[in-house]
């Protein structure tokens, strides 16, 4: 305390003008500057508040182009004025740029309207089953079986089918007649090899057959129940939310079943 008192006594007297300046300084930065109570120390303290300039998007609008054109006309050489053809060409360029900007805005609005319209149309699929390019389906209390389609490059006498759980363990195996070729319907009743109902969860249907004398894996698509529809984005379009499977784009749907 003695050191502080002796230091305070040795400080020079501060004039009224300095006090007024410090008062103004304190009022301008009081939101971020700590006040010590000493008028001399407060007057020499630098403000801690920094001024952040407003963001500039650096985009030139039509008004900016016309301002540049006006500046060009006002600063031109009177002995060599701007040619009329050049002026008309510049104004035509400005109009073209403005037209392209307006066109982009209209296209964005049109995409938004189309996305909403697509989602409204896709809402008619709620409660129905759609064929998706995936060999995985869901077994639940509402759907205790799985149906799908096996795509074959040619007629195959016998197609071997295996059902696997989420861990890859084989639950059941059976065969399907593929002599018709093309897309072959496949159905699994949801029972394991012992004839007992399997637990709820995700299961995969794998298929293989001999093509030109060699065993080959075949593509399998499965049916899934549509529970709801999401708007999605302009890039993805409407999203179908499938029970137990997840979401899929409407454009990826291969077929729609009757039930």
TrEMBL record:
Chain ranges of the FlgD Tudor-like domain: 117-253
Domain FlgD/Vpr Ig-like: 143-210
Keyword tags: Bacterial flagellum biogenesis
Stretch list, region Disordered: 1-28
A Pfam entry, by short name: FlgD
Extent of the signal sequence: none
InterPro entries linked: FlgD (IPR005648), FlgD/Vpr_Ig-like (IPR025965), FLgD_Tudor (IPR025963)
NCBIfam families in the record: PRK06655.1-1 (NF005176)
Family to which this protein belongs: Belongs to the FlgD family.
Function: Required for flagellar hook formation. May act as a scaffolding protein.
Protein name stated in the entry: Basal-body rod modification protein FlgD
Species annotation: Shewanella inventionis
């Amino acid at each position: 305390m003695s050191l502080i008192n002796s230091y305070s006594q040795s400080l020079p007297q501060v004039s009224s003008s300095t006090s007024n300046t410090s008062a103004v300084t304190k009022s301008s930065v009081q939101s971020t500057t700590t006040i010590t109570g000493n008028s001399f120390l407060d007057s020499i303290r630098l403000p801690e508040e920094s001024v952040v300039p407003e963001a500039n998007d650096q985009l030139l609008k039509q008004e900016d182009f016309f301002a540049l054109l006006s500046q060009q006309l006002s600063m031109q050489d009177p002995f060599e004025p701007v040619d009329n053809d050049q002026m008309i060409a510049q104004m035509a360029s400005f109009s073209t740029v403005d037209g392209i900007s307006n066109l982009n805005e209209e296209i964005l609005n049109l995409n938004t309207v189309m996305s909403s319209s697509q989602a409204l149309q896709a809402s008619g699929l709620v409660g129905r089953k759609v064929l998706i390019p995936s060999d995985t389906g869901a077994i639940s209390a509402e759907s205790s079986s799985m149906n799908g389609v096996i795509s074959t490059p040619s007629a195959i006498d016998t197609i071997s089918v295996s059902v696997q759980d989420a861990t890859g363990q084989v639950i059941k195996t059976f065969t399907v007649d593929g002599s018709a070729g093309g897309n072959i319907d496949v159905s699994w009743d949801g029972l394991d090899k012992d004839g007992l109902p399997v637990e709820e969860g995700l299961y995969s249907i794998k298929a293989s057959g001999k093509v030109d004398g060699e065993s080959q894996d075949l593509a399998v698509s499965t049916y899934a129940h549509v529970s709801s529809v999401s708007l999605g984005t302009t890039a993805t379009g409407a999203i179908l939310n499938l029970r137990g499977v997840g979401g899929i784009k409407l454009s990826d749907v291969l077929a729609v079943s009757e039930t």
